[in-house]
Write a structure and sequence with these properties.
298 residues; mainly alpha; 434 Repressor (Amino-terminal Domain); Transcription_activator_Rgg_C; Lambda_DNA-bd_dom_sf; Cro/C1-type_HTH; HTH cro/C1-type domain-containing protein; DNA binding
């Protein structure tokens, strides 16, 4: 198959590959002449007809679009995949590549979602550089102003909001989180909604950590994120949650247990060669405990 095929050409190729006759597809859906015109790109089928044809193939629309694009994601879906693949703001190199890819797409066509995603990514990088949310909040404020006006949030909206919770104060986050969880639950059987669930709890916990309040609430949200991360084997999030839970143990006076836990986490980070995450957490641990282990894990 070649890229940029017509919809009709792809439908025909799939039908032939399934070894289906024309009548096997058009029967109960449309006339034979209509199918002939569609497969030869002489007529664009309606949404209802496309769905009905794909049901004959036992195929959903997402897979069809993937095949039609020569087994590749379209440019926007590829960027979303790259964004979700950046598990931590320490990966500034990946953020820079993402921003370059977004700019490349925006040069071809304007897309409000990609503009917002770019701002969220830039804010994440700024936080990593400055280690405070002041300037990050300023960057994403326009994104939230737009989203706040919407009566309903869809998947891409949820993706943005769960990655910019730091823009809100604690009371607002509680209110927003309740609404977010309702919408995330609606998407529980769609795409990677589990990742959104993980993000909302983990990022809420990080906000609480940044303002040094309510360690019990922070612990609650870290455990929620940890449980969900275990369900999908999101190892980096699991390790990050375990690290921050160890910080809480240390601050509660359980220093021996906390030290054992961070040693395990640092060892796994080192084995996985997650250099940026390891250095970030080593720096955090030195600040929390006064212990410097950089030489041990370098």
């Amino acid at each position: 198959m070649t890229k940029n095929k017509s919809l009709g050409q792809t439908l025909k190729e799939i039908r032939v590959n399934y070894n289906l006759k024309e009548r096997d597809v058009y029967e109960t859906i449309m006339s034979r002449a209509h199918l002939y015109q569609i497969e030869r790109n002489q007529q664009i089928p309606s949404w209802e007809i496309v769905i009905s044809i794909l049901q004959k193939f036992t195929m959903n629309l997402a897979e069809f679009e993937y095949i039609n694009n020569d087994y590749e994601l379209d440019s926007i879906q590829q960027i979303i995949k790259e964004f979700k693949g950046i598990k931590n703001s320490t990966n500034t190199e990946a953020i820079d590549i993402l921003l370059e890819n977004i700019d490349s797409v925006l040069k071809v066509e304007k897309n409000d979602f990609l503009i917002d995603l770019s701002l969220v990514a830039k804010a994440s990088k700024i936080f990593q550089m400055e280690q405070n949310f002041i300037n990050s909040r300023k960057i994403v404020e326009p994104v939230w102003k737009r989203l706040a006006k919407k009566d309903a949030w869809f998947y891409n909206d949820l993706l943005l909001i769960t990655n910019m919770l730091y823009v809100f104060d604690d009371v607002t986050i509680q209110h927003i989180s309740e609404r977010l969880l309702i919408y995330i639950d609606r998407y529980r059987n769609f795409n990677t909604s589990k990742g959104l669930y993980i993000n909302i709890h983990f990022n809420y916990a990080m906000f609480l950590r940044s303002v040094n309040i309510e360690s019990d609430k922070m612990e609650f949200h870290l455990n929620k994120s940890l449980e969900a991360a275990k369900e999908i084997n999101d190892f980096l999030t699991i390790l990050c949650c375990r690290y921050y839970l160890a910080e809480i143990l240390w601050n509660k006076g359980n220093k021996k247990e906390a030290t054992k836990e961070v040693e395990k986490v640092f060892t796994v980070f080192s084995i996985l060669q997650e250099k940026e995450l390891l250095e970030d957490k080593l720096s955090d641990w030195q600040e929390v405990s006064g212990k410097e282990w950089l030489d041990t894990y370098s």
